[in-house]
Amino acid sequence: MSEQPNAVLTTDHFPPLRALDFQPVDPAYRHQLRVGLWPVLLLTLPLIWVQWQLGLPPALVVSVGVGLPLLLFILLAVIWVPRRYRYTGYVVREQDLHLRTGALWRRTTSVTYSRIQHLEVSQGPLERWLGIARLLVYTAGGSSHDLAIPGLARDRADQLRQHLLHHLDQRQAAPTEDDGANSA
């Protein structure tokens, strides 16, 4: 029987991703997350209207219609935002890039450099005002970005983009063994 070309690997030798030194995002990202919570307060309008239509006493309308959304906003701002910020981070390694996000549901996304098609630094109005940006990584076969690192200082986003582009240029310039075999 011939050797198996695609050997089965045991996971005992794989380093856990949580052991990697994830770089934190810019502290201004916390402000972006808090501003993103403001739509929660817009819940007050339909709640007040429904309660008013039901003929509830004005004190109850105000306490439930304003109090519940305000309580939800405060809980999210005090508990969810710091957890989301603290867990968001990225790692740049020799062959791949990793992003970790989440507050309740955690996700780690990894992209190898060989899959990267192009990179984009993006800023919305709030991000421009806070001096932060997102690095969007587009990979082969994808119709939109497959990885977006939020909350990077604008300079850091540009540096990271340039580093990845430089690495991609070096990979394309280096001849592979297959190229040498085909030209011989």
TrEMBL record:
Domain (YdbS-like PH): residue spans on this chain: 85-164
Pfam families named in the record: bPH_2 (PF03703)
TM helices/strands, residue ranges: 35-54, 60-81
Record InterPro entries: YdbS-like_PH
Claim: Nucleotide-binding is one of the keywords in the record: no
Keywords: Membrane, Transmembrane, Transmembrane helix
This protein's name: PH domain-containing protein
Lineage, uppermost ranks: Bacteria, Pseudomonadati, Pseudomonadota, Gammaproteobacteria, Oceanospirillales
